[in-house]
Design goal:
Low-confidence stretches of chain A: 9-16
Structural class of chain A: alpha+beta
Radius of gyration of chain A: 25 Å
Number of helices of chain A: 12
Largest sheet of chain A: 11 strands, antiparallel
Oligomer: homodimer
Distance between the termini of chain A: 30 Å
Shape of chain A: globular
């Protein structure tokens, strides 16, 4: 049952001075809108009378047309309120309240006879606003040269940021003052083979900040549809951020057709860091679910043929004999297999057996399809066909085998950035999935984009990513897209988008490593827009032990790897390590088997970006709770009251904790498992090691 | 029956000096190949000891790699001969002989360890050559920055040229000396809404030239597949043409993957202009038919709902109420029809009736599908869906009505240059055609390209055009693509490509007019690569009579309009004017009804570029001959011996000629029709008026 209340609070003409104020439902946030000198739209935001955004101007610069920046008059404005509770198909909670006050400002630009509206939605936990362009005679088609949306900060805040880039987000976060970004930016970049940094003070969203007086401020966007992705460029003299859109091949930022609007620009704010994590502002700003039937959308816990390549040095390819693969004339029968191809029938059966034995839903297999011998770095157009298996991968037999065991295979579509080729094969690829019983696909966009000149985060690609999702829905297929644009809450509207990467995932632990604090930042930043396929569950930290040529080290304790299934919310969770490793730690592995991937309720018990996050979640349709803590290199000591449990009820808590001498670098596999009876009165004293954490399952016993 | 002879003439190592000579089968043409200073591949060509191409260098400039221009050594060479006769699915003749001597030169570039071959094929009527890149370790993927293929002319020849342009060929031809191109170029450009001229001495192919000593030289290319279209840039000091490829969005010219090769570069040469027209060199350089079954490919004579819009000022659109069409939310039921939409059920039925009555195969209907209200000039991505008819077009009923009458409707797919959108809808669009019985589609690419920054003639689009054709073949659909890249003989390999525009067609007669000489040039230039959907048959020359707002004039006599069905070879011929006009000239219209669209034999009786063409063709599977003459503003007087007729057999000739006082400007509709008995001994004395012509049907009477 959802409850919708909409009523107009105020529809009078503009105030004498032109200024309009809007308050959040709880009255704590206040938005001021006005036209400044020359008719420039200007807004500011306060929280508890503390400045969050200083007066900041709004406008769009157009290609070959008068800009939509100044010369505006207020034609009218309208204030409404909205209160609705809706149920996500999957999520952190079973119900989400969408409660805001809204200000619609109708602007006219008399010199051009054009109209532009600004719509502000003020929630208790932040602001969303967007530009809207109603149907009109003098502004139908237009091209955005640059969007000039300002976010004027009130000081030299601390920020957790990654450098602005049109093609990748796979960076470690840097914690610094805003004024330090310029000097730290270049050093924060690591090679990803496809990166396009645009400014020494450019950063990506969602950007988490903290002010010296204890406000947490987060800048992001919501409902990025048919527009290019917004980055932020900082004027580090004035501490004013300005929107910086991703350009297309000819340098334009967005092609618009009225009636239309931009995505929402968001400013989340609170004096409690936990509110940043529990906020549903981004989801609420997205449209309701677009599908009538969502019964086929199911959260997924999976294992897969993946870490063998990423971490253990095995290959996606089948042979070393093919320096030049042309799919239309390819004949693998004449090549010599190199024998390092784990996506083979026998090995995949082992994964299926393991998944069936331990209750996993699916088995991902990467490297199942022909073309991997020269897939990367060549701007190759026809790189994969997405339907032809390698000779050693029995497509039909393995799917039948998996089905017998109650497991599904997960499809893998690496596009190599060649999206025309992917779109040409998409229907046939999805048909193949339907034929063999696949219901989910991990897609990838590694490398430079084709069409050449386009970027991962431009309007062209954003349009493509959503196309792949909506076409998949026609086939009842769920999508987990890697290297795609960062999520902006579209999973509310299109809940078959069950995952994205769009950040530095576990795979980097086998390359250059992730900072120990990485998972204490991601929920404040990357996860604001939607779930991440982070692929936790790495139990072997010393990569040299499994791959002599590797110098990689997983910067985490084993106990923290368990905690990530709780702290990194996702309806799609992988147990990323290989079965052989899990067999050595079956007592710890039990937590991964037990933990849920869908929830009726979630509580953030403690949180500080870059330091620690402690979350408790109640598994969907049960009374089981799961608690997780991830800590930075400083570790974390805490006492957790279990007051979220049902009053008076008895539970057994199983606590997977770092051993006293655990340390992410020197002793990551030292953990303890203890069981104790608990109630809502209990308090648990716990300690996370440096780079460590803990995980707790709390199961009712009465 | 085809006869293939291949044998090696010569496989010895290189001659002492490195130079190699190759002769044409008849010995008249001689090619010399050598490496010039610094190891640059160099060739020259003579015809009867007259210089055709002076020593000219060959090479490729690469992106971020050592160029393939100099430092070559000859590893070896091989001379072979080939003689085969093949049967085209449709064509000017029932059999085509493919007879050439071939020289393969194997080059090595020791400094880089790379290999490049040059393959020359010398025919009696010209030369084809291409670059080949065998599979090798040091050159697999590479990007062409520019191709430097030279064609060094031996003098300041006369040329019939259109200005170099990446996006349109819809220009009138200019006849001038090569040295005059620079001064005439800018003035030769007329607006086409999508044009990108690249150089004041740039010209397009096929380029027809004539030397002062009477040689006809034609430069073009054959088998343009997965490469960008070649233009020519003239150094007008030295009279050296150099290849100038069409760039992509980031300025690159071609993305290559060995083993691969470039298209063929062609130099046709003869001292008889008629040999330029009868040559099959371009077709012969293309690969044999790629389809096993071609029974579904049929030449087409058609009428259509088209000139009502182009010439008469009617609309493709349905309403004036929609300044902004969004197909996913469109509701035409709320709009007011403007009533100027000829693609309506009642009107289309009239065309179907007319087609059935007069023996036409098909009726083209443009403007049948939703979206035309704002289809053009907005860089609009989702511009058409290719499946939804306007409310006044009964898709199912009209196809049923046509089928009853033994006629097919011809589909129309205007893409507006938005090729991602077209590819996304292609399968569904072709399925719709199959459902309702369409077997041919006229496609269009008007306006600037999407992906933005790509050009009509770049590798990206060339790949697309062929994709649309090969996907159509899977649906047994024939394609007639307008605004696509100029043809290069691919219709041999993919004979469902039954037509292209790729030049200035009849439609311009209603805009700015075509030069009276236009159709005396096109067969020498545009038609070298394949048939053109020129849409002749305009009987009303004074456009003001049918459209008061028009100042257009068809620069042709009526008799010449008939002749074009013979002189402009195409398996796809439209009678472009409207039924009402034809009803006024049914005696002349009889020729259009009678003339064939497929042939067993063709003879070019007289030809001079820019002056006149007289062609005689024998209709497929019959003994009927059809003769046509098109003349420039100078007219043409001639006496034609009918010695191509069967010896001793009696025929009736019906001669559709310009009346004595006919003139394309002042008296274009004055024609005479005379009938006479003829044999192979007969000679017909005939006269074409200025901008006129004549057409003759010759039917056996015994």
């Amino acid at each position: 049952m959802s409850k919708i209340t909409v009523f107009t609070l105020f529809t009078a003409a503009a105030l004498a001075a032109g200024a309009v104020e809007l308050k959040s439902p709880d009255g704590k946030l206040a938005l001021d809108f006005d036209l400044s000198d020359g008719g420039r739209p200007t807004y500011s935001l306060t929280f508890d009378n503390k400045t969050v955004v200083k007066p900041s101007t709004l406008g769009l610069e157009l290609v070959n047309d008068t800009d939509l920046i100044e010369g505006f008059e207020i034609k009218g404005h309208e204030v409404t309120t909205f209160d609705e509770t809706w149920q996500p198909v999957w999520g952190e909670t079973s119900h989400i309240r969408n409660h805001y006050n809204e200000l619609l400002v109708e602007l006219a630009q008399p010199a051009t006879g054009r109209l532009m509206n600004l719509r502000f939605r003020l929630y208790d936990d932040g602001l969303g606003f967007r530009y809207e362009f109603p149907l009109q005679n003098n502004l139908v088609y237009f091209v955005v040269k640059e969007e000039h949306t300002q976010f004027a900060m009130n000081g030299d805040h601390t920020a957790w940021w990654i450098a602005g880039d049109y093609d990748t987000q796979e960076y470690d976060y840097t914690e610094s003052r805003l004024s330090e970004i310029r000097n730290l930016s270049a050093g924060s970049i690591s090679s990803n083979e496809s990166q396009t940094q645009f400014s020494p003070t450019g950063v990506q969203t969602s950007l988490q900040m903290k002010t010296d007086d204890g406000l947490y401020i987060n800048l992001h966007e919501a409902a990025l549809v048919d527009y290019s992705c917004m980055h932020l460029n900082l004027n580090d003299s004035t501490m004013v951020f300005e929107s910086w859109l991703t350009p297309d091949a000819v340098g334009n930022k967005a092609y618009m057709q009225a009636p239309t609007h931009t995505p929402w620009r968001t400013v989340m704010v609170s004096d409690d860091a936990r509110d940043m994590l529990s906020s549903n502002l981004i989801l609420n700003l997205n449209e309701p679910c677009a599908y009538d039937d969502t019964s086929w959308i199911k959260p997924v816990k999976y294992v897969g043929v993946w870490w063998e390549m990423i971490g253990h040095g095995k290959e996606w390819s089948y042979t070393y004999d093919l320096p030049s693969v042309k799919l239309d004339t390819l004949d693998y029968s004449k090549t010599k297999p190199h024998g390092r191809h784990p996506a083979n029938t026998e090995n995949v059966k082992r994964y299926i057996d393991f998944a069936a034995e331990h209750g996993f839903d699916q088995v991902l297999v990467e490297g199942w399809n022909v073309g991997w011998e020269d897939w990367f770095g060549h701007s190759k157009d026809y790189v994969f066909d997405f339907v032809t298996p390698y000779p050693d991968f029995d497509l039909e037999g393995l799917n039948a085998y998996a089905a017998e065991k109650g497991v599904k295979l997960m499809m893998h579509h690496e596009t190599s950035g060649s999206v025309r080729n992917y779109e040409r094969h998409l229907e046939e690829a999805y048909n193949l999935m339907n034929k063999y019983g696949y219901n989910s696909v991990k897609s990838g966009y590694v490398g430079n984009m084709i069409p050449r000149g386009e970027h991962h985060y431009g309007q062209w690609l954003n349009n493509h990513y959503l196309y792949a999702v909506t076409e998949a829905a026609k086939h009842k297929i769920m999508v987990n897209a890697h290297e795609a644009v960062r999520p902006t809450g579209l999973c509310r509207t299109y809940p078959n988008l069950i995952g994205n990467e769009s950040a530095r995932g576990s795979e980097y632990e086998s390359f250059a490593g992730n900072k120990p604090s990485h998972t204490t930042v991601l929920p404040f930043t990357r996860l604001q827009g939607g779930p991440m396929d982070y692929t936790p569950g790495l139990f072997e930290m010393d990569m040299k032990k499994v791959n002599p040529t590797s110098s990689g080290h997983v910067n985490s304790t084993l106990a923290r790897q368990l905690a990530l299934y709780v702290t990194m919310y996702s309806p799609l969770q992988m147990a990323a390590d290989v079965p052989d490793v899990y067999e050595r730690f079956m007592d710890a592995f039990q937590f991964i088997k037990d933990v849920a991937v869908d929830w009726d309720d979630s509580k953030y018990l403690e949180a500080e970006p870059g330091r620690y996050i402690v979350a408790a979640r109640k598994a969907k349709g049960t009374d089981n709770w799961f608690v997780g803590c991830t800590a930075s290199e400083h570790g974390h000591e805490t006492t957790i009251p279990l007051d979220f449990l049902d009053k008076g009820r008895k539970y057994e808590a199983t606590i997977y904790a770092d051993a006293p001498d655990a340390h992410y670098l020197t002793n990551p596999q030292a953990y303890t498992i203890t069981r104790k009876k608990v109630t809502d009165k209990s308090k648990l004293k716990l300690k996370a090691a440096p780079g460590g954490g803990f995980a707790i399952s709390i199961i009712p016993v009465d």
